[in-house]
Amino acid sequence: MASVYKTLSGAEKDEKEMGEKRNKQRVLILSSRGVTFRHRHLLQDLYSLMPHSRKEAKLDTKTKLYQLNELAELYNCNNILFFEARKGKDLYCWMSKPPNGPTVKMHLQNLHTMEELNFIGNCLKGSRPVLSFDAAFDKQAHLRVIKELFTQIFGVPKTSRKVKPFVDHVMGFTVADGKIWIRVFQINESEPGKKKPIDGEEMDVDEAPKKKKGGEFDVSLVEIGPRFVLTPIIIQESSFGGPIIYENKEFVSPNQIRSDLRKSKAGRFNRRTDAQRDTLLKHQDLGLTSHGGRKKEKDPLSDNVLFAIKHQLCLRKMILILYSMYSSTREPYATYRAIYKMYVQPMQLWCNNQQINQLAHLTLYTSWQAPSTAVVFDHARIIIHRFNIDDIIPDPQQIPLRKVIQELIRPIRRKVICSKFNGTCDTSGHNQRDSMLIVKTPENPTPDLPYARSKMLFEDLATELVVQVFLSCRSVTDVTALSSTCRRFRNIFTSSQKLLILENAAETQFGPLEDLTQLLTHNASQPAHIVRTVPFSLALLKQIVHHGRVAEKWCDIYPFKKWKHNYELRRLLTTEERYVVRRAIYRIWLYSRAFHNREHPREFRATRLVLLKRAALLHNWSTWELAEIADVHRVIREVVQSNVCPSNGTIARKFKKRHPGNEHSLLFNNIHLNYPPTAPQVFNPFTPNPLSAHFNNTPTYTSRYAASKFSLHPSHEVGAEGWGDDIPHYYVIEDYMKLDPAQILYLKEHAPLKGMVEGYVRSLCPEYDWFTNNGETWVQTLEFVLDERGEDVGDFMGAIAEGQAGVAVIEV
């Protein structure tokens, strides 16, 4: 190996004596969010092959790539190798020479990492490579630019801090089909006539030739990896900006390729459908059916063939009995029940015909309702007059079954189900117990049908049905309101089913009660991650209602803060999504109550024992549930930094928006002056008059005269409401994120001024020293748990921001 290094170095003299200028090339390697595991392995392989590189965390933005120039300057790097991932499938490679450029964007394909194909080659970590370029690089101008960038980025300088004095691998750059193929090989040296066996195989060895002069060795190449292909797209003059000096007109984006494939598949389906439609049209023009002019033979075992005669017989008997009931019967209820038992039930048992079942359901529906029966009688008479009953008896097949069913169902659907209630409630002439719900049609009942009256007897329901109605209530308020309607319902509610009914309503309205119970029963005597079970009681219900209403308010706030900027996607949450938001609020609340207190000061937040104690609580929840909690945590953070503790920039922007014509310059409180603060005034103009609660208590008055951050008053400086610029404001937000969701919601609704917020926090924390300069620990614990599970934190947070995980998931 030393001979290779000596040959490639070209000189044996010490470079210090020659006074050669030192090459201080450094490469910044990083990627965007959304990269896959194969992309991450590629970055790790390149980082191990380039000792003069520096690996950086993922870049949050994909549009403001000029920020990479600042990162390169910050880390003293003069080359940038940036990998941009799109849609989790496509990978683009950016190579730049900051700060003046140029910049090359290329599409990376056919990626194979070192471990993927189990390459048998190997090289020393920190060794220098030999860069081998195809002759095609010197024939075109854009390839010469790319060659120079490859040389600056992949060429390891001799004076690099981590470099080893060995040259034991080769990087090959080949141009074919407009693409650049990159492969890495090991330089394998062997004595003449000897060949090292590969994978334990025995190989024939030729006779050793005469030894070459100078003790030279035979050199062969063994692939190491990685292996990938680059397609040049554009070349920009500056570093991540400037005019485009080259553009590949033959490049087709992967999105366009996928779109063409989908269109081709859709085209094949459309052509097949058009061919089928054309065939049917040709058959119709020739007077043929779709079966070649022959009718399809009926299946002898089908219901229509087996029960065709029974259908007609049952229909004939049904019409005759309806006619007899209309003309002569005095007891319609008993006769109608007899019809159901004699004919409708056997019809349901014989077959599963849809039309027969409609008639059966119609008979069942009208058998306990007098006005519906009367309507059937009236329309049976219409059917008889329309179809002539004398013709039905000799030949029942002349009347289509579908028409009779339509004539029977249409009036019931129109007049009974969809009618409005009007008229008096008179039940004379028939027994009230025969009807549970008596409905009157809009038309006046005929004199010969005295039973067509209307009345609702809901209080006569059975106790079991009333209990089921109570269990169907969706809120605690609905249960208490229903129990207050009458004494019988009150007695049913206060029976042994009371706790069961209230627990079911609380679960529906404020659930999940399991997570809420963990919050309400937490104390310092037990670790927070231990699951506790307690019996349901009225005392527990009071706390459930209080905390559940706080969670419901956060459910209303979530859509406004989640889609604050892309408001065109804003919508109401579904029932399942509100359930998830409430569950996340309870879990964040439990974490804040357990670990954001004076027993957890700043000095112990990073210790291993405390960190494992916090992580034990997060271990109870899956990764998807952690994504839901992180999504709600982002919403809470947005409320704190925009409503509770706004920055100076937010105050200035909102003040300019509310008072566009005011030229008043704001004086922020981040200027340290050498004079004491002014004494507080005895009279605060922003305190509402106590008498206003007696005379002016409307929401309009309150919103007009209540305290506000942006009120123009001589004794009020709007700029003093700001909480600092970017960096101080960040640490303020970290401190105030230790408050639980109820406290943050209270500050949002009742503390519009900065002094009110500070006073409220001091009243909660008598020992104020532990609260300041001690940020929340949720994010730190979440990163620790995700790292234990092998999840990438950047991908995790990126999926939440893009709507792929969290509460409101965008379905693709």
TrEMBL record:
<dbReference type="InterPro" id="IPR026532">
    <property type="entry name" value="BRX1"/>
</dbReference>
<keyword id="KW-0539">Nucleus</keyword>
<protein>
    <recommendedName>
        <fullName>Brix domain-containing protein</fullName>
    </recommendedName>
</protein>
<comment type="similarity">
    <text>Belongs to the BRX1 family.</text>
</comment>
<dbReference type="InterPro" id="IPR007109">
    <property type="entry name" value="Brix"/>
</dbReference>
<dbReference type="Pfam" id="PF04427">
    <property type="entry name" value="Brix"/>
</dbReference>
<dbReference type="GO" id="GO:0019843">
    <property type="term" value="F:rRNA binding"/>
</dbReference>
<dbReference type="GO" id="GO:0000027">
    <property type="term" value="P:ribosomal large subunit assembly"/>
</dbReference>
<feature type="region of interest" description="Disordered">
    <location>
        <begin position="1"/>
        <end position="22"/>
    </location>
</feature>
<dbReference type="GO" id="GO:0006364">
    <property type="term" value="P:rRNA processing"/>
</dbReference>
<feature type="region of interest" description="Disordered">
    <location>
        <begin position="280"/>
        <end position="299"/>
    </location>
</feature>
<feature type="compositionally biased region" description="Basic and acidic residues">
    <location>
        <begin position="11"/>
        <end position="22"/>
    </location>
</feature>
<keyword id="KW-0690">Ribosome biogenesis</keyword>
<dbReference type="GO" id="GO:0005730">
    <property type="term" value="C:nucleolus"/>
</dbReference>
<feature type="domain" description="Brix">
    <location>
        <begin position="25"/>
        <end position="241"/>
    </location>
</feature>
